[in-house]
Amino acid sequence: MDYVNAFWVGGLICALVQILLDRTKLMPGRVMVLLVCSGAVFGFLNLYQPLIEFAGAGASVPLLGFGNTLWKGVKEAVESDGFIGIFMGGFTASAVGISAALVFGYLASLVFEPKMKK
């Protein structure tokens, strides 16, 4: 049942974002920023953690989950380091995910040959 919940919650998030992209004049970059900021706000309001516990990766993998991860990192860093944690926490919490994206993106560029559009 965990896989089913992850699938439908992640799919619902993606479908809502696609509707937002199709039905509004918002540019994709602005929608992505909106998602990250919304994830941080939902984390601040303690609304996102119950969703992650229910849906697992279906809720933590989309950009909403990235915003929530940034929020949790900042919260922990502020509790341990004080004011400077505002600047350190997000980087510390998301460093592994960002590093993995860079490494796997580079490895994919070595394996696959890009084809330019004409």
TrEMBL record:
The chain crosses the membrane at residues 6-24, 31-48, 83-108. Pfam families: SpoVAC_SpoVAEB. Keywords: Membrane, Transmembrane, Transmembrane helix. Coiled coil: none annotated. The keyword Amino-acid biosynthesis does not apply. It comes from the Bacteria. InterPro entries: Spore_V_AE, SpoVA. Signal peptide: none annotated. This is Stage V sporulation protein AE. It comes from Dorea acetigenes.
